[in-house]
Amino acid sequence: MFKKIRSKILAVILATALIPLIGLSAASVALLNGMKDNALSTNNELGTTASNDSAAALTAQIESDLTARASAIAESVDGKLLQIENHTRIVAAYTEKLYANPENYAARPLNYLQPGEEGTTIPHIRTAEGVEYDDILPELSLLGNASDVLDEYLVTGINVTASYIGTESGFFETVDTTASVPNRKDYDARTRSWYIGAKENAGLFWTDIFADASGRGASISCAMPIYGPDGSLKAVAGTGATMEKISEIVNTAKIGENGYAFLLNTRGEVVITPKNELITDASGALIGENYLHNSNADLQALAEAMISAQSGIKKLMMDGDDVFIAYAPLSRTGWSIGVVMPNAEVTAPVTFMREDIDGLISDSETAVNSFMSTAVTAVVISILLVLILAVILSLRFSTTISKPISLLTEEAIEIGKGNLDYTITLMTGDELEELAHAFNIMTDELKVYIGDFEKVTADKERIATELNVATHIQASMLPHIFPPYPDRTEFDLFGSMEPAKEVGGDFYDFFLADEKTLAVVIADVSGKGVPAALFMVIAKTLLKNNAQMNKTPEQVFNEVNNILCESNEGGMFVTCFMGYLDVETGVFTYVNAGHNPPVIKRVDSSWEFLPCRPGFVLAGMEDINYKPQSITLNKGDMVYMYTDGVTEATDQVEDLYGEKRLIKTLNNEIFTEDINDIIEAVRNDIVLFANGAEQADDITMLIMKYND
Amino acid sequence: MTIERKPYDKGVELTVLGRIDTVTAPDLTAALMPEFAGDADQVTLNLAAVNYVSSAGLRTLLAAQKESKKRMKSFIIKNVVDEVMEVFSMTGFNDILTIE
Known about the structure:
The complex is a heterodimer. Chain A is α+β, with helices and mostly antiparallel strands.
């Protein structure tokens, strides 16, 4: 019991404390989780959006920057070329003036080293084979005036290596930065590409890049035809320059970390690039990788756009790298500048930013997770605390509750053992104290009750014993020795009485009223128990006494009725049948006071009811005048008297035994000689009929036979 | 046994249902006797639903009859079934009771 109560209290306290706590905790954790997921996904989304937006913005920025760079480089290169071109134009224009008005200029003969002479002259003179100095002297003297103009290139600050004029007459006048260039007689300018180009072009002409004849690296020439007054070609002015300055512009252009610029010539060849060495072809021209004939279609398209003098930017794969290439044309030479930038570098800031954002997201996730685990730890600790608290509380509670209960249990066990003096005092101030109080009251009452009960039981036992004695006395008062008068052969008698439970009110009697008169009586006092038994004794005694005072049956009834009425405080009455048999004549005189009519068996017929005038019961009312009846019995006739215990015996469903069944049973015993058997037969049939039902009333029978 | 009480213009009628025997007779006595001490001039006992009256029942009826005479009231028994009438006849009660 103690443990059960403790467990129940523990369970209740735990449930009360823990269920809401756990519910709240679960809800909080779920909420936190939701918030965490939401925050993380929002962060992630923000990061991605920011990265994408940034990438787009950066890409747009880079594209515009790269395009601008390409244009700037192109302009810068163009500027250098423009200086070369301007110088060439000045030389050509001046020379054309010399040819137009030779008379205006004094002869300014140029030195020409004779074969075998050593040294250098400025300007130098070279002639084609077969051209004699004297033949060209006048023209040479005229063009000597152009020497100062040729020399002008020195102040331009560009990498011009030589400024020169080749004539149709076959000589070549040059001012060269290399002083050691000897005058030569084996140089025919008219066969050079710059000369042919300007002549054919009939205007300004740029050569391809070629390897400088004096070993000064990649070079380029700009040439301009000079016409005489008659419109015939007189000469071509040319300016040679190394690509050093231009290469420097292109090669040193800083394009991000790994980007670079390149120059594409009109054939789609990369002629200036920090990436690759150039090679010289058979004619001395420098050639580079040709994009126009590249297997990469994107590069082909790029080259086509570039040699078409377009500008723009393309994104393509080059040498396995994802790159942006911006391009812009030069306004002269037909070249184009390309600027290459790896995409990785363009988007690097975006990648860094993305990494930063991811780092931030990861940090915030770590922070949220750490917060969550702190929260969960707090919840677990709270639950544990509540658990411990609940256990302590429930132990305290259960002790305060169960200890009094244990005491009460002890008392109950003591009471159970019969120790009614055991009392208990509880000062808990609650229902248990009331219970203890009730226990004590119960103990006291039990004491009183058990005392009473013992007394009552003793009384009952005494009464039962006395009633048992009374029953025996009552039975012994009835004549019970058969045959009663062994010496009287005129009649046979047999009687029996079975009391129902205790002493009853039935009785039978027979006696000799006088020598020749046999009196038979059967009666039933209303009610049962001692009052009925006492009344029966009185009635029986009065009847017998009066009958033996020479009175007729009706006189006896009249007398006894009045006597009984006098002292009948209990309102009892008696049904009674009494008959006188004159043993000599067989005359049977009888009176009936409300009793069941007897049954008669004539020798020559079956059992039938004796005709009876129903008189009123004895002791019911005073001054009743009973009327006698009489018949004459023949030898062998029998009279069977009984009480209503016979006809009103009941079976299990309270059906009555009845008079018809009685007659039938009697008739079944017609041939018996022994009157005992007749009574035995009726009794057996009643038992059969009752079928186990309890006997409700006394069963009393008396049979008389008038003998031969 | 049950007893149903119903007043009428001259008095009160008690209708009994069941057996009147040793066990139930005291109940009938308790119900019947006070009626004679009351205002009713007539006490009617309806025995239509009674098929058995034991000697204890007869004693109750006798006591009621005596009480009615003492109090100058009328005690009427009605609707007596054959089985019960037989008992009344046998015991002579039909001579002293007012049976309708």
